[in-house]
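__Protein archive entry__

___
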Amino acid sequence: MVRRVVGWLMTNPANLAPAYSQRLDAILAASPALAALADHVRAFATILCELRGRELEGWMNAIDADKQPALASFVRGLRQDLDAVTAGLTLPWNSGAVEGHVNRIKMIKRQIFGRAKPDLLRKRILLSN
């Protein structure tokens, strides 16, 4: 049940089925602490999805003021490299295409491990485009 509730919290409320939305509302009404946590999670999701990185510092201050232990270590990690996190949540560029190519190369490498020499790996990588 816990995983299901976490899934509901991580889902955009507009995309949540009405039955699940009602159950989540009942759970949040029974637990003010969980309701506050849900608000913070949804606020972060908005910052993430809408590239509002400049609002991150205010969000982190709200976490600190609310004394949310579930998010405190997450906020500490964000603060360790705040400039990079803010840039990642503000700028429209990402490394998704590069990560996809790296994943593809690793898959090919695993497929031929122990069966061929590096020259075949090179040919398979160059010819798989």
Q: What stands out?
A: Residues 30 and 69 are 19 Å apart (CA to CA).
